[in-house]
């Protein structure tokens, strides 16, 4: 037997046959394990473990018998005859159909495992957004192809004329296409969204300059799924998206504004605003978020209730929310410590011809506990969660 085996192993077709039969055996083993997995809750424990080992022995023994037949070793009578019977059985339609299902199951699992190993960078950037988006699209597309190819091959094995079936399906698809133009529009729009990298999974967007805004949780050729601040998921067909405002692409900006009263010293208020901006920029905890030094715009508006001062921070995408909250905390404490008032409600009530003016005032800040506030160290770090858009639906 050994001399015959060594002679047969010198033939490339024998190695090819062994590799193919081993692949089919592994596919059948995985298919059997999947079926046993459905019974695991009902059986469980040692009986299930025994069934798994039994199935492994059956597949291993079957492949050994088929390998004996492929290598043509008639000197091993029992295995050679068993392998011949197994090969004859798999040449029948039922055997071929079983092999197709098993191979499709392996391909399905391989795609899931391969895409699961693709991990985007922890840091938010365009590359990580692109990877997360294309990962889901490629996985779903390949799985659809596996189902379609397996279905067509299986129908051919069962004796169905796949060519005629495809021709009939194409005619029906053409008729359905006229009634499903919105679906076709969704797919084409989704294709160009992905091709042009307009936005992706992880981006914060506002759709159609309207009330739907949130983080993109899922994006495929047909729909975009947004997660609102309160957890609500909005499912939007891509064909209904006309304009998209992306708040997290390439870089973001913090519009750091504060209002002061008309009685305040504007120059002192500007110096406080500049000092707070430079403090945040120099703070090691926040410095890595900044892409440029803060830009002081100065007095931007003389509003009815006060004077608006503004600074601009160019920062990394999605960091503008936390930096904006930290700025609000620090500027409030700094204004209190400098004795500069932030506007509060004032109303004039008119009773007949003699107006009575009522003002809401506060006590003298001397001895006020707000004087001892530490603006450089926050009791808790602001979260990176986005702020809701004005008028946003939840």
Overall number of strands: 10
Instruction: Return the CATH class of the domain at 252-372.
Output: Alpha Beta
Principal-axes geometry comes out as elongated
| Major sheet attributes | 5 strands, antiparallel
How many helices does DSSP assign? 11
Q: If you compute it from the alpha carbons, what radius of gyration comes out, rounded to the nearest whole angstrom?
A: 35 Å
Q: Spans of 5+ residues with little confidence (pLDDT < 50)?
A: none
Neighbour order of strands in the largest sheet: 4-3-2-1-5
Sheet/helix structural class: alpha+beta
Q: In percent, how much strand structure appears in the residues?
A: 15-25%
Give the termini distance in whole angstroms. 76 Å
Helix share, percent: 40-55%
How is the CATH topology of the domain at 252-372 named? Alpha-Beta Plaits
CATH architecture of the domain at 252-372: 2-Layer Sandwich
Multimeric state of these chains?
Answer: single chain
Instruction: Give the SSE string.
Output: HHHHHHHHEEEEEEHHEEHEE
Mean pLDDT over all positions? 79
Domain Mechanosensitive ion channel transmembrane helices 2/3: 142-181
Organism: Deinococcus koreensis
Family: Belongs to the MscS (TC 1.A.23) family.
GO molecular function: mechanosensitive monoatomic ion channel activity
Describe the structure.
GO terms for molecular function: mechanosensitive monoatomic ion channel activity. Residues 361-377 have a biased composition (Basic and acidic residues). The chain has 394 residues and is of the alpha+beta class. Among the domains are: 2-91, no CATH class; 189-246, SH3 type barrels (Roll); 252-372, Alpha-Beta Plaits (2-Layer Sandwich). Helices cover 52% and strands 16% of the residues. The chain has eleven helices and ten strands. The strands form three sheets. A five-stranded antiparallel β-sheet has the order 4-3-2-1-5. The protein has a three-stranded antiparallel β-sheet with strand order 6-8-7. Strands 9-10 form a two-stranded antiparallel sheet. Helix 9 (266-282) packs across helix 11. The longest helix is centred in the middle third of the chain and has 32 residues, at 126-157.
């Amino acid at each position: 037997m050994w001399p015959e085996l060594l002679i047969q192993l010198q033939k490339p077709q024998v190695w090819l046959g062994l590799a193919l039969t081993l692949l089919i055996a592994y596919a059948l083993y995985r298919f059997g394990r999947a079926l046993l997995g459905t019974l695991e809750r009902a059986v469980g424990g040692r009986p299930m473990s025994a069934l798994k080992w039994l199935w492994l022995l059956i597949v291993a023994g079957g492949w050994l018998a088929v390998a004996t037949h492929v290598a043509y070793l008639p000197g091993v009578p029992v295995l050679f005859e068993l392998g011949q019977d197994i090969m004859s059985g798999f040449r029948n339609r039922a055997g071929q159909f079983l092999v197709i299902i098993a191979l499709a199951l392996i391909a399905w699992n391989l795609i899931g495992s391969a895409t699961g190993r693709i991990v985007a960078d922890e840091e938010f950037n365009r590359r990580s957004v692109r990877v997360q988006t294309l990962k889901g699209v490629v996985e779903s597309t390949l799985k659809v192809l596996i189902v379609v190819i397996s279905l067509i091959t299986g129908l051919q094995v069962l004796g169905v004329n796949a060519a005629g079936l495809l021709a009939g399906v194409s005619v029906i698809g053409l008729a359905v296409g006229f009634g499903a133009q919105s679906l076709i529009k969704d797919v084409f729009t989704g294709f160009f969204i992905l091709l042009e990298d307009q936005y992706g999974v992880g981006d914060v967007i506002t759709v159609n300059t309207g009330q739907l805004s949130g983080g993109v949780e899922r994006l495929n050729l047909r729909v975009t799924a947004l997660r609102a601040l309160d957890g609500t998921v909005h499912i939007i067909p891509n064909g209904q998206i006309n304009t998209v405002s992306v708040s997290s692409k390439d870089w973001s900006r913090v519009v750091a504004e504060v209002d002061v009263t008309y009685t305040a010293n504007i120059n002192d208020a500007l110096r406080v605003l500049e000092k707070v901006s430079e403090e945040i920029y120099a703070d090691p905890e926040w410095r890595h978020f900044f892409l440029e030094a803060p830009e002081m715009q100065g007095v931007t508006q003389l509003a009815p209730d006060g004077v608006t001062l503004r600074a601009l921070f160019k920062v990394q995408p999605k960091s503008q929310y936390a930096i904006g909250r930290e700025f609000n905390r620090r500027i409030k404490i700094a204004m209190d410590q400098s004795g500069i008032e932030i506007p509060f409600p004032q109303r004039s009530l008119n009773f007949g011809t003699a107006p009575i003016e009522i003002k809401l005032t506060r006590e003298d800040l001397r001895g006020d506990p707000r004087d001892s506030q530490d603006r450089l160290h926050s009791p808790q770090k602001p979260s990176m969660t986005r702020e809701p858009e004005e008028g946003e639906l939840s």
